[in-house]
Amino acid sequence: MQTFFRVAAIFFGLGIIGSLMDGDFHPLILVVAVICAYFGWMHEFTKKEVNEEQRNQGISKANEALKPPSERFSQAQKHALVCSLYVIAAGDDEVHPNELEYISKVVNVLEYWDFDEAKIVSNILENREMIIEIISGFNDYQRNYLMYCMDGVIKADGVIKEIELQYADSIIIQAGLNIEQFQKIVLKR
Predict the structure, then answer these.
(1) pLDDT tens-digit profile of 14-68?
(2) Residue among 83, 95, 100 at smallest CA distance from 171
(3) Which CATH class name applies to 72-188?
(4) Which of 108, 84, 103, 106 lies closest to 177 in space, CA to CA?
(5) Is the pTM of this model over 0.85?
(6) Which of 23, 44, 57, 187 has its CA 20 to 30 A from that of 146?
(7) Is the CA virtual torsion 78, 81, 85, 91 positive or negative?
(8) Hey, is 33 helix, strand or coil?
(9) Which residues contact 68 (CB under 8 A, 6 or more apart)?
(10) How many other C-beta atoms are found inside a 10 Å radius of the C-beta of residue 48?
């Protein structure tokens, strides 16, 4: 099949040269020649065999990708995520109602029903290292989710405050996450 397209590409290529020499160029011939060249040289017609283990692995990855956030985090991870958002929101010594509303939306999406503001504050003060340790163990999806949530809480009150960015940067750096990636997320929106 590739041979057919290669021969056709050469044939139509010569036709283009001939039509240019005659001054009677047809763009359709160029399009056909490019398509034939693509299928003749660039496109591979080979099929890759996939064994059952690879197929099952693909299915499990697809199922994992379809899971809602509430099923992708353990209770401890949900708690660490919410605590980190609260630290950022309280960074300017006040939690704006819009920031608290945003955190509540995240809590609902995560289905983290243990949310209690007083409990969160005391836990942040007592278990800061454990929270950072849990965050540092996040997988790629969880890290990205955390960064987008941090971005959301920073912007929830309508003003990006430097102190809130510093708290977010500090959490990300201490947890060993990619600070450049977070800064791109914040600047993108």
Answers:
(1) 776 777 667 776 677 667 777 767 666 665 555 455 556 655 555 565 555 556 7
(2) 83
(3) mainly alpha
(4) 84
(5) no
(6) 57
(7) positive
(8) helix
(9) 109
(10) 6
